[in-house]
């Protein structure tokens, strides 16, 4: 018997198939809102405060005045995990501006919040042992757009990028910015390692300031691994010794191929694995989980 999935919506826990969202919800009409994707380990969410902070920063960019506070969100997530009986979970928080037609939002809208949780079983050890391939797609990230630095509900650039990558049998799409520098993956940040120096594009290159990305920079510092936030070209990526992708769900995923060409030796490298171990140790430490 499949357990009924429960979601949180505006203060209530209810079955997902009983949720009714207005046809005039601006998230539905225009992608007018923001979201966060989070991962729970043993029923505890890693860096929840940082996700909530980034979510509110995105709301400020969109000029959405949400009343959702950290305490209520944390309580809702705990209740959601308990009701769905999941401890290893992928969660999503979505905040919509409210109901209102027309490109210019009416004044006085009441934002709404939706939180969902599902069992996490997306990536296996075989993925990390083999590594991912990426395809350099045709669309570009704009370093001038504020939307490049927030998790907007309008995700069509990312969806089109992933569809293009799928046509080339790649697991991730890699986007350049409007100046031709490597920006990020459609759903990930990117790092390269060259001569034992860790390099990732800066936020002003038009990228999302990833929560996992920030954690990796912390881990590198604790390992005395020199790290830089610098732009680099696709050619420099291909000449790197190692490369990897990061996001909250897959953590640190080795990147071994770009456009069917090997990066480094075409297999996960030792420093990437060291950072992977460091990341898991950081998760266990912060969430007080057994090693």
Give the uncertain stretches in residue-range form.
none
What about the largest sheet?
Answer: 9 strands, mixed
Note the total helix count: 8
Q: Which overall shape is indicated by the principal axes computed on the Cα atoms?
A: globular
Mean pLDDT: 96
What is the radius of gyration computed over CA atoms, rounded to a whole number of angstroms? 19 Å
Q: How large is the share of residues in beta strands?
A: 25-35%
> Could you estimate the helical fraction of the residues in percent?
25-40%
Q: N-to-C terminal Cα separation, in Å?
A: 33 Å
Q: Name the helix and strand elements from N-terminus to C-terminus, one letter apiece.
A: EEHEEHHEEHEHEEEEHEHEEEH
Judged by helices, strands and strand pairing, the structural class is alpha+beta
Secondary structure tally: strands: 15
Describe this structure in words.
This protein is an alpha+beta fold. The chain contains eight helices and 15 strands. It has helices at residues 26-30, 48-61, 70-84, 125-130, 156-167, 211-222, 234-238, 270-287; strands spanning 6-9, 12-15, 33-41, 44-45, 89-96, 112-119, 132-141, 172-177, 182-185, 189-194, 197-200, 227-229, 242-247, 251-258, 261-262. The strands form two sheets. Strands 7, 8, 9, 10, 11, 12, 13, 14 and 15 form a nine-stranded mixed sheet that branches. Strand 14 (251-258) and strand 15 (261-262) form a beta hairpin. Helix 6 crosses helix 8. The longest helix has 18 residues, at 270-287. The relative contact order is 0.14.
């Amino acid at each position: 018997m499949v357990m009924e999935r429960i979601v949180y919506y505006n203060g209530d826990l209810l079955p997902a198939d009983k949720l009714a969202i207005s046809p005039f919800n601006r998230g539905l009409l225009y992608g007018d809102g923001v979201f966060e994707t989070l991962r729970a380990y043993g029923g505890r969410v890693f860096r929840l405060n940082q996700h909530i902070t980034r979510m509110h920063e995105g709301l400020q960019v969109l000029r959405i005045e949400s009343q959702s506070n950290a305490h209520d969100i944390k309580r809702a997530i705990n209740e959601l995990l308990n009701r769905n009986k999941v401890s290893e979970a992928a969660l999503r928080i979505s905040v919509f501006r409210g109901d209102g037609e027309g490109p210019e939002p009416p004044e006085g809208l009441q934002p709404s919040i939706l939180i969902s949780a599902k069992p996490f079983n997306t990536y296996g050890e075989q993925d990390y042992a083999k590594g991912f391939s990426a395809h350099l797609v045709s669309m570009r990230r704009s370093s001038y757009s504020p939307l490049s630095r927030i998790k907007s509900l309008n995700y069509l650039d990312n969806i089109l990028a992933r569809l293009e990558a799928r046509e080339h049998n790649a697991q991730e799409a890699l986007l350049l910015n409007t100046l031709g520098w490597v920006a990020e993956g459609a759903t990930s940040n990117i790092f390269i390692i060259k001569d034992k120096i860790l390099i990732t594009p800066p936020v002003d290159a038009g990228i999302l300031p990833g929560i996992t990305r920030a954690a990796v920079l912390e881990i590198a510092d604790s390992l005395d691994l020199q790290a830089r936030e610098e732009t680099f070209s696709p050619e420099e990526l291909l000449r790197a010794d190692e490369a990897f992708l990061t996001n909250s769900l897959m953590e640190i995923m080795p990147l071994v191929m770009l456009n069917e060409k090997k990066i480094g030796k075409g297999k996960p490298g030792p420093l990437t694995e060291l950072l992977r171990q460091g990341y898991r140790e950081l998760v266990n430490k912060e969430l007080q989980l057994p090693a």
